[in-house]
Amino acid sequence: MTHKSKTLATWLALMLGSLGAHRFYLHGKRDLLAWLHPLPTMLGVAGALRMHNLGQDDPVAWLLIPLLGLMLSAGMLTAIVTGLGSDEKWSARFNPGEAVQHSGWGAVIGVVLALLLGGTVLMGTLAFGGQMFFEYQIQRGNR
Prior knowledge:
The mean pLDDT is 92. The chain has helices at 6-16, 21-27, 32-36, 38-54, 59-84, 87-94, 105-141.
């Protein structure tokens, strides 16, 4: 078993958490949850590309873009939970039998960035979803 760094796991969740990179790092390529991350993320990216190409009136893009926002937010939440966890519990779970290594400022900086980015992405996703819902209701009422 190789040593697992809490700081590296935090940064993987921050940078590539929506694709499951942190889970691949921690649990290996046989982790089913890691393989479930890329699909909704790619669907959300496809929705963003559809909206870019077809405009804001595309209802398929309305449904797909929030998937991207939710997966990005989930990655940020994972970075926060990972980075704020105690070093002792981390060591017991992922590095049993080894001396506890303290994560230091690298994990803390990753948590701060995840809070900033995650809050921004989540609020943007909620605002976009709400706007599209109400625009749909208005269009439906004008028929």
